[in-house]
């Protein structure tokens, strides 16, 4: 199986997209490096990884048989994330999986050749991780946790829940201000008075 096909299959498994045909068995052990932005004890981490491994198994990839997965847990610490990214990229896996924007950025700093698949990234285009979602380009691709059109939908849902809603406050991380574009759709902007 060629590397590109392996990466395509891995990307599908990363978001639990079922595929009808299982993957061909590789001639050699494939290696995946996973950099999680959480602590290992965070209740969100193990279920995400369990689903990830289940979907890989459905595609014919079984850890210990034809697949080796190395995990690193950054615990939300930026310095630790950079250190672990360097360590993980240094193991030269076939593909890297990044959880959160900071992990993706750290891995991108460490390699320009190992494919990186990201998940749970708020704005991969605005963050400069990819050129576009349709054609990411380079060695990085993945799945955002939401797309810009959803921000407007969330505001619409709030208005349905509370029809008398007049104002909505949203907090943003200063470094990620591009995410505010998800909520500043033209139809929600206050009209300017002459």
The counted number of beta strands is 5
Largest sheet: 5 strands, parallel
- Can you count the helices? 5
Weakly predicted, low-confidence segments: 15-23, 185-194
- What is the CA-based Rg, rounded? 19 Å
Distance between the termini: 64 Å
Give the % helix.
Answer: 25-40%
Q: Which strand order do you get reading across the main beta sheet? A: 2-1-3-4-5
Shape: globular
- Averaged pLDDT, please? 80
Order of helices and strands: HEHEHEHEEH
Q: Could you say which structural class the secondary elements and strand pairing correspond to?
A: alpha/beta
Strand coverage percent: 15-25%
Characterize the structure shown.
The chain is of the alpha/beta class. Helix content is 32%, strand content 15%. It has five helices and five strands. It has helices at 3-14, 45-58, 78-90, 101-110, 148-161, and strands at residues 30-36, 67-73, 95-99, 116-121, 140-144. Strands 2-1-3-4-5 form a five-stranded parallel sheet, sandwiched between helices. α1 (3-14) packs across α2 (45-58) and α3 (78-90) packs across α4 (101-110). The longest helix has 14 residues, at 45-58. The chain is globular and about 60 Å long. The chain starts with a helix and ends in a 33-residue tail after the last helix. Residues 15-23 and 185-194 have low confidence and may be disordered.
């Amino acid at each position: 199986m060629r590397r590109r096909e392996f990466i395509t299959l891995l990307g599908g498994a990363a978001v639990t997209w079922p595929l009808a045909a299982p993957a061909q068995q590789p001639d050699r052990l494939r290696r995946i490096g996973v950099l999680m932005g959480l602590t290992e004890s965070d209740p969100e981490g193990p279920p995400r990884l369990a689903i990830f491994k289940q979907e890989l198994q459905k595609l014919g990839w079984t850890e210990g048989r034809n697949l080796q997965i190395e995990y690193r847990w950054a615990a939300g610490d930026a310095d630790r994330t950079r250190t672990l990214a360097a360590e993980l990229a240094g193991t030269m896996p076939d593909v890297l999986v990044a959880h959160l924007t900071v992990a993706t950025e750290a891995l991108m700093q460490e390699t320009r050749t190992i494919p990186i698949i990201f998940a749970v990234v708020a704005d991969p285009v605005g963050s400069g991780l990819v050129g576009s979602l349709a054609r990411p380009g380079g060695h990085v691709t993945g799945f955002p946790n939401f797309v810009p059109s959803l921000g407007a939908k969330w505001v619409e849902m709030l208005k349905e829940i509370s029809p008398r809603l007049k104002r909505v406050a949203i907090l943003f991380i200063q470094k990620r201000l591009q995410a505010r574009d998800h909520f500043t759709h033209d139809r929600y902007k206050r009209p300017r008075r002459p």
